[in-house]
From TrEMBL:
PANTHER family the UniProt entry points to: INNER MEMBRANE PROTEIN YGAZ (PTHR34979:SF1)
Signal peptide region: none
Subcellular location: Cell membrane
Keywords: Cell membrane, Membrane, Transmembrane, Transmembrane helix, Transport
Keyword Metal-binding in annotation: no
Biological source species: Streptomyces katsurahamanus
Main location: membrane
Presence of the UniProt keyword Transmembrane in the record: yes
UniProt record similarity statement: Belongs to the AzlC family.
Membrane spanning residue stretches: 64-88, 134-155, 167-185, 197-227
Superkingdom of the source species: Bacteria
Bilayer topology annotation: Multi-pass membrane protein
InterPro entries: Brnchd-chn_aa_trnsp_permease
Protein's name according to its UniProt entry: AzlC family ABC transporter permease
Length: 243
């Protein structure tokens, strides 16, 4: 009996910790929808178009990339390509989460809409499937509601809010994402890939059209994997010669 009580208390404590983390991430990132709404309005999109992007696309980095490139005078096709390639990473998140969450088949299409950086990070940080499901659901629901609400408020009140850079709202989403990403870069390969992507993205930012540096930064992963594969191959050949 004492063991059962202790287990129940542990489970309740774990749920509280998951809820705290999930709500914290959801609220922090959800509020940055203000910045997206204002930025999108400044790029010439209507309130209806802006809200449709948040409701149907719902992946902040891709949305910011799209409207940011358009606002900077970039080609719409280039802007869309950059947003698309940023969004492709969610498909890889989905492959991992499908095994971790193991949701009923009927719920998977709905859950797929919430497969983004923040929900993935919170779910993967949990010690078991139950906690992962709870973290994913609470983060996704909180973020979806707040992101869409603040997107509308930002778009509708763009003139009153003014330049998001003066408020620092445009930095909220990247800052939270980096805070979630950093602890997950455990191996040397992951850290090198992330570092190279930063160098490529920032290095080409002044010389390439808006949206293109993101595509260049995506080359970091195959480049690092190719070099790693070549190093392993050389090592195996060396071992074979020694024998």
């Amino acid at each position: 009996m004492a063991g059962q009580g202790s287990t129940g208390q542990d489970s309740a404590g774990q749920d509280s910790a998951v809820l705290r983390d999930a709500l914290g991430v959801g609220v922090a990132v959800g509020l940055s929808g203000f910045a997206f709404g204002v930025t999108a309005a400044g790029s010439g999109l209507s309130v209806l178009q802006i809200c449709a992007l948040s409701l149907l696309v719902f992946t902040g980095a891709s949305q910011f990339a799209l409207v940011g490139a358009i606002a900077a005078g970039g080609n719409p096709l280039t802007a869309a390509a950059g947003a698309f390639f940023l969004g492709v990473r969610n498909a890889f998140y989905g492959l991992r989460l499908s095994q971790l969450l193991a949701l009923p088949r009927a719920l998977r299409p709905l859950a797929a809409h919430w497969v983004i950086d923040e929900t993935t990070a919170v779910a993967l940080a949990q010690p078991n499937r139950r906690a992962a499901r709870l973290g994913f659901t609470v983060t996704g629901l909180t973020l979806y509601v707040l992101w869409n609400l603040t997107t509308f408020l930002g778009a509708a009140g763009a003139e009153a809010i003014g330049d998001t850079r003066a408020w620092g709202l445009d930095a909220a989403s990247p800052a939270v994402f980096l805070a979630l990403l950093a602890p997950m870069l455990r191996s040397t390969t992951e850290r090198v890939t992330a570092g190279l992507a930063v160098v490529l993205g920032l290095g080409f930012l002044p010389v390439l059209p808006a949206g293109v540096p993101v595509l260049v930064a995506a080359l970091a992963a195959p480049a690092v994997l190719w070099l790693k594969g070549r190093r392993i191959g050389d090592r195996e050949r060396t071992k074979g010669e020694d024998r």
